[in-house]
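Notes to self, Glucosamine-6-phosphate deaminase 1:
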Amino acid sequence: MVKRELEFLPIKTFRFDSAAEAASSVAREMSNWIRTKKYHRGDACLAFSSGEHVRPTFDKMREMSGIEEKGGLAVSTVRCFGLAEFEGRGPGDAGSTSAWMDEAFYSKWGASAEFRHELDGRLEGAELEAHCAAYEAALAKEGPADVLMIGLGATGRLGLHEPGCDPNARTGLVTLSDRTREELAQWHGGIEVPERAVSAGVATYRSALRVRVFAFGEHMAEVVDRGMLPDPDPQNPLSLLVGHKDVELLLDPAAAAMLE
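result:
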């Protein structure tokens, strides 16, 4: 694996030879934290985004974990937080992010459902507000997240937060642009994506100890370049991570093209 830092940028940025190698690097880091926390008699707390662009991360984590009872990583008590769910869908529903995670990762990994925290887009009004508050409370109690991974999208969105988003937002409803809905549909097997989703907020992202952001493909080169600002600007959500003590942007060659 060839990993090269692109220097003198406001966000620490690494160029990998391929998207798969970038995604695999996060798997190694997450696995290392699982091992480190267990050595110190604790449990790692990890926050996951979903979609085909990060499937190599989950494939590599499964490969590295092995079987716990035979000396593999002790993953049964890892605290796992899903970062988003589509409105009208919840855990186990067809077309939900949680169903995608079950298929791609959880059903093949050893983490216990007892320690999984998923958002539920089926709730409304006061019930949804209470659910989001409980999610934040659980993350504060069991975290902060040792590693949180999210994607940068074609509109410049960070996770599901579009340009113009509230940098201080916590978990709640967000509105998705048409372009983002198309992109998310591609990442989740061609499902129909609704106009809104429940998502961890930008401030929630920043509460993690380590944030890892993916951007892959030629179409992302301009988006990445535009987000490299010295100060936070809600119109360029990537820049809202400037100043975080441990954030890394992980790129394939195409996405890094305008930075080299």
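- The longest helix spans residues 19-39.
- The chain has one domain: 32-66+74-242.
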